[in-house]
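input
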Amino acid sequence: MTMAAGDHRGAGVITPRAEADRIVAVPLRHPVRNVLAVLLLVAVGAFVRDAAFNRPAYDWASVGDYLFDDRVVRAALVTVELTVLSMIGAVVLGTVLSVMRISPNPVLKGIAWTYVWIFRGTPVYVQLVFWGLLSTIYKTVTVGIPFTDVSSTLVVEQAVSLFWIAVLALALNEAAYMAEIIRAGLTSVDPGQTEAATALGMSWWQTMSRIIIPQSMSVIIPPTGNEVISMLKVTSLVTAVPLSTDLYMRTRDISAETFNPIPLLIVASIWYLFFTSVLMAGQYVLERRFARQTRHVDVGPDATAGPTGEEHA
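output
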């Protein structure tokens, strides 16, 4: 049958009736929300302008002078070292504690639970003060071979520096939190995964490294990233040890010399914000990386199959 001229029923042609039946969606307007957003921006702009031009106490010139001062930069590096070393120790000890918590051995489970209970239940500042008094409690430590005269006596105050005492105190405190995070990640994996790995003849280490840990990382990474950022800020409390070479204490010492504390507080805050921003970006990248590993892709015999097993058009 031949289509008559002027017939608009051809494929892909919208008829007047179909045009009339189309629904035109109009976005809902939010005038109150828009007004509040504008008022908020105006308030923030007014605050920034007031801080920049009308508050001489901020002393922005001094902020610029001390932001990259050698003493401040070295102190910032000490803060990073405290954070990294403490988190490494916390992750290692937290992993051991988490394995003890899920162990069927009641003694190991009880020891791990008691550790977590004590270090999570007492303030970190109190713990730092306690570890700062370590040389008062243990003035000397004698190490030797039992039933022999071979021994060596160490003076604790001389053998252990305040820096490493601070690292030890921060790591021991953080290990209690990391133990719970890692335990939550390990127990989030279906027990059937372990049973399947055992049925395939995989050893315990192969099961953990190839099956359990990769799947649990999507649960472990987000809270661990938060703990790293929290650790960076907690290093400002090492004055309780007392350690005075970290970022906060160094800027406070400089402000005591200049009698101008506010600009140095701003300097310290800028450095902390810079480090936390870098850590947040790294956490985002890691989360995306391990999230990709948890996606299931069906691989069929057809090379054109998509992620759901359906062919692409």
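quick obs: The CA atoms of residues 80 and 302 lie 51 Å apart.
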